[in-house]
Amino acid sequence: AQSVAQPEDQVNVAEGNPLTVKCTYSVSGNPYLFWYVQYPNRGLQFLLKYITGDNLVKGSYGFEAEFNKSQTSFHLKKPSALVSDSALYFCAVRDMNQAGTALIFGKGTTLSVSS
Amino acid sequence: DVKVTQSSRYLVKRTGEKVFLECVQDMDHENMFWYRQDPGLGLRLIYFSYDVKMKEKGDIPEGYSVSREKKERFSLILESASTNQTSMYLCASRLGQLNQPQHFGDGTRLSIL
User: Fold this and answer.
1) Phi, psi (deg, nearest 5) at residue A84
2) What is the average per-residue pLDDT within A49-63?
3) CB–CB of B104 and A43 under 8 A?
4) Which of A5, A80, B78, B105 has the most other CB atoms within 10 Å of its CB?
């Protein structure tokens, strides 16, 4: 069965510091991995995805994520946090070899960036 | 840009009512999805659809049904609303390829009294 874990309910960082939001996954085959962000009272916005190739993926708003197959992780990172990055972040996975499946989402991590 | 539009942002209904949540996408996407979002539980899949008139159950289909009569529209139906169905409901759509992201609407916050 596919699953995603986001081990931290909340991450707190100071503006200008680097941030990391953690994600680990479990699939039987090879994964497609995604990060989404949700601002209050809005839907989810797509940030970036890993399909194949380079393990470091760059996305919107200066975010990037590193795929690590041996650790089954896909952590979201940003070199310098902004207060406006404060939001709820979701990691999601799909097994690329299982046709007909929707994305499986983690429970979300609230990022709080203080000024 | 892909636009996924949910008909209501906020909705208040009474226990036992039949409730319809509507979702429309404008990008000719084959796949459409309904999730509910609850604090601490993340997003849970209710139903999804690969094509017109086709539907598949997700993780929590009980108490819900869906309808997809046209490619751009995917409706979620609460047959007899109950208070435990009070939640945020999110609709999403996606191209047919598995490596494509899902695009979400802004959600409907549904309260059942």
Assistant:
1) -70, -10
2) 92
3) yes
4) B105
Query: In angstroms, what is the C-alpha Rg of chain A?
Result: 14
Q: Which of A59, A71, A62, A53 is nearest to A113 (CA)?
A: A62
The answer on pLDDT for A89 being more than 90 is yes
The Cβ of residue A16 has, within 10 Å, a number of other Cβ atoms equal to 12
B107 CB neighbours in chain A (<8 A) are 41-43
Q: For chain A, give the secondary structure using H, E and C.
A: CCEEECCCCEEEEECCCCEEECCEEECCCCEEEEEEEECCCCCEEEEEEECCCCCEEECHHHCEEEEECCCCEEEEEECCCCHHHCEEEEEEEEECCCCCCCCEECCCEEEEEEC
The pLDDT assigned to A41 comes to 84
Tell me if chain A has a CB within 8 Å of the CB of B49. Answer: no
Residue A99 predicted with pLDDT over 70:
no
Residues in chain A with CB shorter than 8 Å from the CB of B41 are 107
The answer to whether B4 contacts A43, with C-beta atoms less than 8 Å apart, is yes
Q: What token pair was written down for B113?
A: 């009294």
Among the listed residues A113, A111, A115, A94, the one whose alpha carbon sits nearest the alpha carbon of residue A11: A111
